[in-house]
Amino acid sequence: MSQPRKSRALIIVNTNFYSSHDDVAVGTRRGARREAEKLSRILSRLNYEVTLMQNKTAEEIENLYQQECCRQHGDYFVSIISSHGAEGVVLGCDSKPVKLTRIFQILSSETCPALTKIPKIFFIQACRGRDLDQGVVVECDSREPEPGGSSNYLSIPPQTAAMFACSPGYAAFLSISGSMFLQALIKVLEGEERHLALNRLMTRVNWEVAFRCQARGTYEGCKEMPCFVTNLQQEVFPFSA
Q1: Which residues form the Caspase family p20 domain (predicted)?
Q2: Residues 19, 26: contact at Cβ < 8 Å?
Q3: Cα 27–17–77 angle (5° rounding)?
Q4: What is the mean pLDDT of the chain?
Q5: pLDDT digits (tens, 9 = 90+) for 139-168
Q6: How distant is the alpha carbon of residue 240 from its chain centre?
């Protein structure tokens, strides 16, 4: 008897950035690579076929999602993006923006029929603005938004869910030990909560960040509040391997 197809996971982590004008390095996101590698190992144990990509340009990021349309998929598609960002966009390592709506469009039923009925789940560690939630030495995964670069974060196609590290307009925090958001996700996926339905699992991640995480160092006392939006049409249990 043939084995069932494994679900797919695509993890993209950008840690080293350069200016698109003069190829000058513009900063390193310390801690991001290590937690991305840990997430890759966790998802592999949960029966996902994982692709982990590091330091990709905006064009390369789009190409990675287009390649997913040609792959064999199991029951779920999960993608984790860890980068700098602004509302509605994440940045390639060339500091150029990629609209999240463009990523969602690539995987929509119109352009990717193979994924039409498969739940697509995104976890996005990136700033959505520069405001600080007043509520580790940290870095902010942010930049000034490009004119016209924002998009409505609710614009997701059917059978898609997206969880963001922070609320619209706010910064997401990262330290040398990792990000508040993805560290909370790691904790949940390593515990019994991984057997929960996705909406309950995401709520648990919210709780972990809201009540157990607080910035130190330069941003002492600042908080972060993840949020999620879903267009899924049924309860799903993507991590109950």
Answers
A1: 5-131
A2: yes
A3: 120
A4: 84
A5: 556 554 444 333 444 578 889 999 999 888
A6: 20
Provide the token pair at 212.
Answer: 């157990």
CA 119 vs CA 173, 182, 234: distances in Å? 28, 20, 9
Q: For residue 133, what pLDDT is reported?
A: 52
In this structure, what are the phi and psi dihedrals at residue 211, rounded to the nearest 5 degrees?
Answer: -105, -15
More confidently predicted of 154 and 171? 171
Domains of the chain (ranges, CATH numbers): 8-133+152-231 (3.40.50.1460)
Range list of H helices, the chain:
32-45, 58-68, 100-106, 180-190, 198-212
CA-CA distance, 205 to 164, in Å (whole number)?
11
Q: Are 1 and 50 in contact (CB under 8 A)?
A: no
Asked if 154 and 195 count as a contact pair (C-beta separation under 8 A), the reply is no
Number of other CB atoms surrounding residue 215 within 10 Å: 23
Query: Cα separation of 104 and 65, whole Å?
Result: 9
What tokens were used for 144?
């000034």
Number of Cβ atoms within 10 Å of the Cβ of 241: 12
CB atoms within 10 A of CB 21: 7
Dihedral (C-alpha) 194, 199, 202, 207: value to the nearest 10 degrees? -110
Helix axes 180-190, 32-45, angle to 10 degrees: 20
**What's the rounded Cα separation, in Å, for the pair 233 and 7?**
19
